[in-house]
Design brief:
Layout lengths: L2 E6 L2 E6 L5 H8 L7 H9 L3 H22 L4 E5 L9 H8 L4 E6 L2 H10 L7 E6 L5 H8 L10 E4 L12 H10 L6 E7 L5 H13 L9 H5 L5 E3 L5 E2 L18 E8 L1
Parallel strand pairs: 3-4, 3-6, 4-5, 6-7
Antiparallel strand pairs: 1-2, 7-10, 8-10, 9-10
Helix pairs in contact: 1-2, 3-4
Amino acid sequence: MGEEHAVMGEGPVEIDTSKPHAARVYDRLLGGKDNYPVDEAVAARLPPEAAEGARQNRAFMHRAVRWLAREGVDQFLDIGTGIPTEPNLHQVVQEVNPAARVVYADNDPIVLAHAQALLVSHPDGATHYLPADVREPDKLLARAAEHLDLSRPVGLSLIAILHFFPDETGAYELVRTLTGALAPGSHLVLTHSAYDLFPRELEASAAAYAKGGIAMALRDHAAVARFFEGLDLVAPGLVTVTEWDEGGAPALDVPRGGLYAGVGRVR
């Protein structure tokens, strides 16, 4: 009970359907079907603003990676991929540069199984899928280096993942390990829940996830900004997901999103 199987490149893998997973909850919020009753239960307990926040978060990711591709970045490492939802990262960047190479990494077998089936690269570029855990950044980087040239700039995507890593899990250290391995001119694309802007809603979200056994870190602007220490923040800096507009000035006349968003350049 509580297990299903998915077929991946290395053979069938077990999927524990008795426990919720943040990626599948996110899929549920986006209206996807690749989730289970345990994930639906967590999503149902989240504040009503959570679904709109998920859509805003994904729209930011599209804008940020499109901007990077236009700036000449042609390699991307997306950690915490989530269930594929079109358009996916590789579709966005390969529309700008068909030769772009993208590596997706996630620790949920169902995510990678769907990725293998659905994320088809442009024939001029390449797309790869790694079963890897961000909590083991050195191993993840070693596997990514089989497909990406880490001596050249890489766009590193950590979208809505770090708020599931409390400080005691070494969240800041793992980000520094990842960015420290990247060449100058690489960029970190990051989103994180904005606790100081929406404390009531995020405390409710944290409680909903906690009932499913998923820890959530409640960080304010200063705490999220620490992830960019040693990097040069691209304008408009660390703002909400609805305010960040392709490396330019903050968008005007839009409600503040529930997540902070930023892009930082590796020196």
